[in-house]
Design brief:
Blueprint: E1 2-8, E2 12-21, E3 24-34, E4 41-42, E5 45-46, H1 48-67, E6 72-77, H2 79-82, H3 87-98, E7 102-104, H4 107-118, E8 128-133, E9 138-144, E10 147-154, H5 158-165, H6 173-189, E11 199-203, H7 205-216, E12 226-228, H8 230-238, H9 244-254, H10 261-275, E13 279-283, H11 287-297
Helix pairs in contact: 1-3, 4-11, 5-10, 6-10, 7-9
């Protein structure tokens, strides 16, 4: 039996097909469309153009599912629709045009699904902080012995940071300080700044890109999934100028994230400073994995 999970994010709409057989789930096909829905907002509403782009992308995925004999497709939206005032209008338009029902996840639900993904894998330490960086928000779960201690959605993501704080393509040193200060302030507002953890667990392609970039630039020579936190500062230093030489490594590794990778690193750095983090562990799981595990468990 095939299932499709469609994750409608602020920057990317992710499509992933799983095969479920003999009580085993296996991802078999994935496709991401970088549509940047957060860029199609006016007065905190998704614009008509944004709705059109959403419809065309979902229709394409709907056609994929039909051709690939997917039995059931599930559609979820995160901060992309959670943070707009015309969400119900958007949901109704998608239902009328495509007969698709979209579930809007709360920040806590999103963090919970991400943590569900983490619990499906073996990790080096059973306590730490799980981080899932999105375009419009970032979800964190603080845990001990694989049990949640605190779970929150920080209302800032890489596209929000880029639009609000960055004047060119990469943030300069002064902008970096402002961004880190802003993230730490949001952590304090949520009253989640009193923990001390050694490990930050990162899920999603952002962390895969960070790992590839560090290896590509020979900042570390091994290819294991653990990254010393000091290497984040090394990477930031090497990428802190708006020059062709700085852009080239990321163009080679992941050109689609050229404007969001430094905001991602600054979110990581802010959490590292706040929680005294020593290491990053790059997890090969996604929010979609946590969703499908939850669906099948039900």
């Amino acid at each position: 039996m095939k299932y499709a999970i469609i994750d409608i994010g602020s920057s990317i709409i992710k499509y992933k097909i799983y095969n479920y057989e003999n009580k085993t789930i296996e991802p078999i096909i994935k496709n991401d469309e970088r549509v940047g829905l957060i860029s199609y907002r006016e007065n905190n509403q998704l614009t008509k153009e944004g709705i059109t782009i959403l419809l065309s992308t979902l229709k394409k995925f709907q056609e994929y599912s039909s051709k690939l004999n997917v039995e059931k497709s599930y559609y979820f939206a995160t901060a992309s629709l959670r943070n707009i005032i015309n969400a119900q209008e958007v949901l109704q338009t998608v239902k009328d045009e495509l007969d698709i029902n979209i579930t809007i996840l709360t920040g806590h639900q999103e963090a919970d699904y991400s943590f569900n993904s983490l619990n499906s894998m073996k990790i080096p330490c059973d306590e730490g902080i799980l981080l899932d960086i999105g375009g419009g928000s970032s979800e964190i779960t603080i845990f001990k012995e694989k049990q949640v201690e605190k779970q929150e959605s920080i209302p800032t993501g890489v596209l929000k940071i880029y639009k609000k704080h960055i004047s060119l393509l990469y943030p300069n040193k002064e902008e970096q300080k402002i961004i880190i200060k802003d993230i730490k302030q949001r952590i304090h507002e949520l009253n989640i700044g009193t923990f001390q953890k050694d490990y930050l667990y990162g899920i999603g392609k952002t962390f895969t890109t960070i790992k590839k970039l560090i290896e590509h630039m020979k900042i570390k020579t091994d290819t294991n999934n653990t990254i010393d936190i000091e290497l984040v500062d090394v990477l930031l230093e090497k990428l802190s100028d708006n020059t062709k030489e700085c852009f080239e490594p990321l163009l080679q590794v992941d050109s689609e994230r050229i404007h969001t990778i430094l905001p991602s690193l600054l979110i990581v750095k802010a959490l590292a400073l706040e929680y005294n983090i020593k290491k990053i562990y790059v997890c090969n799981v996604t929010l979609q994995d946590g969703i499908i595990y939850k669906i099948l468990n039900k």
